[in-house]
Design goal:
Layout: H1 2-7, H2 15-42, H3 48-58, H4 61-88, H5 96-122
Amino acid sequence: MLGLQKKRIYLGRGLGMWAYWLHRLTGLALVAYLLLHIMVISSATGGAQSFDPLLATLQSPLFVLLDLGLLALVLIHGLNGIRIFLFDLGIGIASQKQLFTGLMAVAVVIFLIGTAISWPHMFK
């Protein structure tokens, strides 16, 4: 009877569940971005007169900020994907929380470097 009671406990509240949802949500956001990107690039078929104003808009500070959001999505999704790949190889399963935390720390460092590079372009 004791074993049945333990199975009633919901185990999906920890860091692993956050990693699970972050991976799915960033994947969906990247798919949405790719569809929008294809739509924007397809406007180049209209020639310079239609693409140049769009390019000027895409170089605005708002879109530089959105590019930083894209960088965050790629970092989170990509590094968490590497973690999942390592698990499939049987590497790091026992220390998955530390691996996730470490990879997300790497993501933050790379994101901060990207922000430092992009900062002058937001306030030109």
